[in-house]
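Hello Y.,

Per our agreement to keep a running log of every chain we model this quarter, I'm adding this entry. I've kept the format consistent with earlier entries: sequence first, then predicted structure.
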Amino acid sequence: MKKTYEAKPLFLERMQELLGKDFQSYIEILKKVPVRSIRANKLKISPEELKKKLESKRWKISQPFKDYPEIMIVENDLQPGELGRTLEHLLGYYYVQEIASMLPILTLKPEPGQLVLDLCSAPGSKTTQIAAEMKNTGTIIANEVSLKRIKILASNTERCGITNTIITKKEGLALCKKLEKEGFEFHKILVDAPCSGEGTLRSSPKTYKMWNIKAVKTLSRIQKSLLSSAIEILKPKGEIVYSTCTHSPEENEEVIDYILKNFPNIKIEQISLPVKSRSGIKKWQDKEYLEDVKFSCRIYPQDNNTEGFFIAKLRRIK
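Predicted structure for the entry above:
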């Protein structure tokens, strides 16, 4: 029997404050099983060819975004774990990835030949997505602090045929300082920061149990440090995408507000996403954020039948 968890009262209170009249629809979507989404690995197969192969297994495949045919939804009821057991998966033709998790790289827009840093990279979903957009050219530094997670990252990059990636094992802040000392500057940086995971409740209900406000505040401090250190190794006119899979303003708008107030050479960019998103909030409880924080994006489960995410794109102007 599947274990169930109860949401803590403070978490519900905070989400009610964030969502207002949409709170009930949010609670309802959390009870539903997430859709099964995959991303075609364009380094090994075209989306059209992969679709044909999967449809030959009697899978029903939809492609919800015309501009991103690699993003696919498997409509069938499959056996648990079936997505990860197919020959096509083992050959690296596709990556099992939640749609909201693909959005940071659609925002970052890495290009062939660039130098890109993925600061918190395991298990590799976004690293492999970056490599595909770069056509396996240029260089990606994929960093992870946990050896156990590095093994998964290495396995996924190998399975997907990634050849332009160097994996490093270092605490993110220390790595940025080391790279700065050595004179490295990156065209693009992804800071997909460790977070409280409020957006993953549909696929990972144990987050209900793990959630606590102290962790939210601790993570906020870590995120500010990580993003600050990454900015120091960004090329002039380079871009950083900051993302989390949480709804907590302390880990989202507060982090962006902190950066904009402390780095006059950084500005926030407007984002265009293929899903419904909401503007970043400008006020939370007793804190008011800068006006431009509204250019960040909130992705809620009830708006798109996805997980929840937060995304902001920053540019170094000098």
